[in-house]
Amino acid sequence: MKINVINGTMNVHEMDKYVKYISEKYRGRQINALDIILDGEYVDLKVYFKDTDFQRAFRSADYLVNNMDKLNDAKQQEFADKQRHKA
Asked: Any bridge partners for residue 36, and if so which?
């Protein structure tokens, strides 16, 4: 993980505490880089996540599938006829 300290300097012990904090906060996500921005008495953290492949999930009868081919013909037709909401 790349760590950038902006607007000042920070010792390794302090940086390790911030890395531990974000690792616990974003458990399960892969972190690529961390910007630690010093602003007087305050510290802002900007976290950059590694790009992950997102798979689309379809909800059908209260279960999730990642591929429409797993559904039978009736469910596939139900999805085709479904009204889409505008984003």
From this structure: 5, 45
CA distances from 50 to 13, 58, 72 (A): 24, 24, 35
pLDDT of residue 20: 94
* Among the listed residues 5, 53, 61, the one whose alpha carbon sits nearest the alpha carbon of residue 30: 53
- The first and second tokens of residue 86, run together, are 């505008």
Give the residue carrying structure tokens 């390794």.
12
Cα-Cα-Cα-Cα dihedral of 13, 36, 47, 1, to 10°? -50
pLDDT tens-place string over residues 32-55: 999 999 988 889 999 998 866 555
User: Which tokens go with 69?
Assistant: 């081919």
Q: With a threshold of 0.85, does the pTM exceed it?
A: no
| Identity at 64, one-letter amino acid code | L
